[in-house]
Amino acid sequence: VGWNYIAQLQVDRSFSATLFEVQSYALIVLFCVGSSASHSSWGYLGLGIRLLQQRGNHFQKRDPDNLNAEFESWNRTFWAFFWLDNLVSAFIGRPIGLHPESFDVDPPLEVDDEYWDQGFTQPVEKPSLLSFLVHSVRLTAILGDTLRRLYASKKAKILLGWKSAEWEQKVVAELDSQINGWLASLPSFLRWDSQNPPESHSLFVQAAVLNAHYHYVQIMIHRPFIQKDNVLAAPSLSICVNAAHSMLNIADIWIKRKYMNIPSLKLNSSVFIAATVLVLRMYGQRRAGQSIAKDLAYLDIASRLLEIGKHRQGRWSTTISC
User: Fold this and answer.
1) What CA–CA distance (Å, rounded) separates 40 from 279?
2) With contact defined as beta carbons under 8 Å apart, do 319 and 313 qualify?
3) Cβ-based neighbours of 126, under 8 Å, separated by 6 or more
4) Rounded Cα distance, 23 and 102, in Å
């Protein structure tokens, strides 16, 4: 059904793109990244970014005295592409297209759609669903920084001034500081408490995905060093294993709350990476004659989530293959 819908979209234009056309590229990216042709999502992502840059949306500032729906819609669309750019590039192993120094855009307003015609004022007592986007964008910015600095080519690292092993420690420390600062800035309704997860369906999903993504970024920061022979190896392995355990705990609660519902694609890919980290750790422990019982229990959670995914593979082709 999805391919039939995608085939009807007209995506070639010779004039300035409309808001809905640019947004259609975002939808195509979301569809493709979960399909059997996930790598094609990167090309459509680039087209959407170029259309935004053609319109000058990468250098647009908000006029606080003239808030309007059109500006906020374009603003939200830009940040959706920034979010997708970092996530998709990490997912399929491609360089990102939107670098922080190449744009200057105000963050999205944390105001839900129903309050746009009420002076763009969110009631104090009601958490905005847009807070998820704002904090997710900030987290993916750290992911993008990680990709540029730790997963760059040798030539790029030379240009960045990476001359010794001490630079690795410095970069990792800076990224750790960024991600810890991000976690400390989360509002209470988006924080994950495994003993008391949010009752609201929307806030439950947002908190689960956001915090699983946080642990995923932790692994992305430390994964390059877990098998290196330097001072980063032991702490990096410990951080990756703890992050993997935390992601699988979130997945366990997700299963209990939403059992046969389709898991989030982002949650699935995070769980896959968590399981991979634990398998590698278990391999090392077994060779050293150590117990692997604790990690086996966590892998059981991962296998249950992927088993659910098998029932929905017709919707997300990458549910199992991610």
Assistant:
1) 30
2) yes
3) 112
4) 21
Main-chain phi, psi angles of 211, to 5 degrees: -75, -30
Reported as a single tens digit per residue, the pLDDT across 37-85 is 788 888 999 999 999 999 999 998 999 889 999 999 999 999 999 999 9
Which residue type, as a one-letter code, is found at position 153? Answer: S
Question: Taking the mean position of all CA atoms in its chain, how far away is CA 179?
Answer: 13
Helices assigned H by DSSP within 56-198: 69-92, 130-150, 154-159, 165-185
Q: Is the distance from CB of 282 to CB of 295 less than 8 angstroms?
A: yes
Burial of 250 (0-12, 13-18, 19+ CB in 10 A): buried
For residue 12, CA distances in Å to 25, 51, 263 come to: 11, 11, 33
> Is residue 49 within 8 Å of residue 2, measured between CB atoms?
no
CB of 205 closer than 8 Å to CB of 265: no
Nearest to 143 by CA among 202, 76, 218: 218
Q: What is the pTM of this model?
A: 0.85
- Opening angle at CA 124, ends 121 and 128, nearest 5: 70
